[in-house]
Amino acid sequence: MDITGKVINIDGNKVYLVTKGKEFVTVRRNDVKPVIGQLYTGSVIKKPTFFSYLIPVVLSIFLIAGIIYIFNGFSVKTSLVADMNCTVKIDVNNNNKIVKASATDSNGFKLTNSVNIVGNSLNDGLMMLFDEAINQKQLNIPDGFHMGEVKIYVTKNKKNNILDLEKFIKYANEKKYIINVNNNNNKF
User: Fold this and answer.
1) How far, rounded to the nearest angstrom, does the alpha carbon of residue 104 sit from its chain's CA centroid?
2) 3-state secondary structure at position 151
3) Angle between helices 122-135 and 106-114 in degrees, nearest 10
4) In 3D, which of 70, 74, 126, 72 has the Cα closest to residue 100?
5) What are the domain boundaries of the chain?
6) Which of 31, 37, 62, 112 has a CA 20 to 30 Å removed from the CA of 182?
7) How far is CA 52 from the centre of its chain?
8) Cα separation of 178 and 49, whole Å?
9) Three-state DSSP class for 166?
10) DSSP 3-state of 137
11) What is the spatial distance between Cα 182 and Cα 41, in angstroms, rounded to a whole number?
12) What Cα–Cα distance (Å) separates residue 108 from each residue in 29, 113, 165?
């Protein structure tokens, strides 16, 4: 928007005017050279609004929160080893989601290649491994005299958080298997 007024000051590309209504206005300098005390017409320089400052701050907060969320999503909170006559090391994040599963022997390698548990909850991933180990006949099938057994060793637990394995333990017990959990204290 162009405004005309009397020039009271010149500062680089800014020209300060007083309009007929006694209003002070800052305009951009154009091709016409301004002279103090003379009339001058130029386009108004708008001052930044509150929202123009608020938007970058809000975007920065969301960016930082997103980075923290992503970092927490992939950082390992707990590591455990599941021994089902083959050993599989499982890394779990703060949300009890599996972020990595790796085999420590050849049978575990076959097991991890046949089922993908990364991204699942810890209980669901253990149930998937358990079912696949039964399908591959890596677990001893319980008979009338012997119960099947699965051992879980918690090897890395940063804050000594208690793992919620109740769903997996109940699932395995229904199939006549005993689950022994060693929570890094040598007690089953």
Assistant:
1) 28
2) strand
3) 110
4) 74
5) 2-43, 74-182
6) 112
7) 28
8) 67
9) helix
10) coil
11) 82
12) 75, 8, 21
| CA 91 – CA 11 distance, rounded (Å) | 63
Q: In terms of Cα–Cα distance, which of 152, 151, 162, 173 is closest to 96?
A: 162
Tokens of residue 89, six digits: 């090391």
pLDDT band at 184, cuts 50/70/90?
low
CA-wise closest residue to 107 among 137, 79, 81, 149: 137
Question: pLDDT class for 186, splitting at 50, 70, 90?
Answer: very low
Which single residue is written with the structure tokens 């599963």?
101
Which token pair is 144? Answer: 């009338």
Name 6's bridge partners.
18, 39
Read off the pLDDT band of 67 (50, 70, 90): very high
Instruction: Give the Cα separation of 164 and 183 in Å (integer).
Output: 12
Confidence at residue 146, expressed as pLDDT on a 0 to 100 scale:
67
* 15-54 pLDDT tens trace: 999 999 999 999 999 998 999 999 999 889 888 788 888 9
Contact 62, 82 (CB under 8 A): no
Q: What backbone torsions phi and psi does residue 68 show, to the nearest 5 degrees?
A: -65, -40
